[in-house]
Hints:
Chain A is an all-beta fold. Chain A has no helices and eleven strands. Chain B has strands at residues 4-7, 10-13, 19-25, 31-37, 44-51, 54-57, 64-66, 76-78, 87-94, 104-105, 109-113.
Amino acid sequence: RKEVEQDPGPFNVPEGATVAFNCTYSNSASQSFFWYRQDCRKEPKLLMSVYSSGNEDGRFTAQLNRASQYISLLIRDSKLSDSATYLCVVAPYNTDKLIFGTGTRLQVFP
Amino acid sequence: DGGITQSPKYLFRKEGQNVTLSCEQNLNHDAMYWYRQDPGQGLRLIYYSQIVNDFQKGDIAEGYSVSREKKESFPLTVTSAQKNPTAFYLCASSPGTGLAYEQYFGPGTRLTVT
């Protein structure tokens, strides 16, 4: 089983739609969680950290479910510019390493 | 401007040659990392360094070497021993060590070996 698993997609949604991605992780002792965004042939960029209580940044909402070992990312009112690959990232306990998922590709169409 | 720079953006080499990829940061970050990314795969950790003159192997260190003589710089050498060197190489830095702080990436170097 992979340490971090994501549905590769692609998710094809119209502008204005709401879309949600899930990500599961295998290490129950993981302590930190992030969502990164990666545009085609570019570097990953931090989108948001994921906190236990859940957190929101504009149209983006991240949730953490420790009992079921998954995190989610909800994007409301999708824009064309949201088209990218979204990487789920998990930090196992007591380590400096981050474990990256393979990403979920989102394509927003007009 | 603060940030991470990698050079060159594209690099072409012949098989059997060593090549060094540059990574510089002016964010005053303690930790620096090297990853490679292949199509359809997640980022894989090659080496990382938490402090000057110290570094640790990541998950796929074979065929690579690094140095950390200055806090700002963490060059990666891809040696001829690396069997499949063609990939997208990403350098990252992080403000903290000991806990999993977020990492910030440079623009990457695309290495093609023929």
